[in-house]
Design a protein that fits this description.
The protein has 287 residues and is of the alpha+beta class. Helix content is 39%, strand content 20%. It is built from eight helices and twelve strands. It has a six-stranded antiparallel sheet. Strands 9-6-5-3-4-12 form a six-stranded mixed sheet, with no helix packed on it. α4 (158-180) packs antiparallel against α5, α5 runs antiparallel to α6 (214-243) and α7 (247-260) packs antiparallel against α8. It is elongated, with a radius of gyration of 28 Å. It starts with a strand and ends in an 11-residue tail after the last helix.
């Protein structure tokens, strides 16, 4: 059974960390949760399995370990919502579902999305020696989750993370579909560009590092270049009509641009069409 620790007070307040096995706390770098504070002993406390649950132990620390404001003497059973005090950091203990479901969810993602999510981060399954959480005044090492999930991902609840990943997958597949159909309806390439951007944003909201969505950035850039080419073509057409005094055809082209580019776009076509489109004027006879 997995559990989660949420920092309720101290550096990184609000961050959520998930673990699948026993966790040690202390100032020494060999601990799983490294607290670089003078009030924390080199080997300070430990959470370990007890029957079907978890227990908190103080490991002879100089300043003690607290559970719900009281000093821990020996071993204390942990329950949902308990507050654990180690040095100047207060953790909230939460039961959490196992990692198997999350790992299966990642395996079900399309390969480009899966590559995007793990780029620059530790792969599912974990990397030996990279599971520690670093907190405190000189914390400089990246945090890694016990199950191999980057801890930035663990800040979201499982349901929130699942919703983000599902939304990313849906947007990615919609983008691919629109790209395949871009010759059927001219606006599809614009919709694909928006969908890939949405997929990237959902992945980043799920906690992937900023450099992670490399594949999606390429797809966004490819769709954006196609939009810029179409934008230049339509702008040239509208400009040519205006140059030859065919104002109505020019206005039709500006309206076509607004249909193909209903919002912001890489070439600024939407804005230029809005600037050049003449609103219909009321007939004087109707006044």
């Amino acid at each position: 059974m997995a559990f989660a620790l949420i920092i309720a007070k101290g550096r990184g307040r609000g961050r959520r960390y998930r673990f699948e096995s026993a966790v040690s706390f202390g100032r020494d770098a060999a601990n799983d949760v490294v607290l670089n504070q003078a009030t924390v002993s080199r080997v300070h406390a430990r959470i370990e399995r007890q029957g079907e649950g978890w227990a908190l132990l103080d490991r002879g620390s100089a300043n003690g370990t607290e559970l719900n404001g009281a000093a821990v003497a020996g071993r204390a059973q942990l329950r949902e919502g308990d507050r654990i005090g180690v040095g100047g950091v207060l953790f909230e203990f939460r039961c959490a579902p196992g990692a198997a479901g999350l790992q299966a969810r990642w395996r079900d993602l399309p390969a480009p999305l899966r590559a995007t999510l793990v780029a620059g981060a530790v792969l599912l399954g974990g990397v030996a020696g990279e599971r520690a959480v670093y907190l405190g005044d000189a914390a400089a090492a990246p945090a890694r989750g016990d199950a191999g999930v980057p801890l930035a991902m663990a800040e979201l609840s499982p349901l929130e993370r699942r919703a983000r990943l599902d939304a990313a997958r849906s947007a990615y597949e919609r983008g691919q579909r629109r790209m395949r159909e871009r010759r059927i309806a001219p606006r599809n390439e614009y919709d694909a560009w928006l969908a890939f951007k949405e997929a990237r944003d959902q992945i980043e909201a799920a906690g992937a590092p900023p450099e992670a969505p490399a594949d999606l950035e390429r797809l966004i850039a490819d769709a954006g270049r196609g939009l810029e080419r179409e934008c230049r073509r339509l702008l040239f057409t509208a400009s040519r009509f205006e140059r030859y005094g065919e104002a109505e055809k020019a206005q039709q082209t500006w309206r076509e641009i607004l249909l193909r580019f209903p919002g912001d776009d890489p070439g600024g076509c939407h804005r230029k069409a809005q600037d050049n489109l003449v609103s219909p004027q009321p007939d004087d006879a109707d006044g």
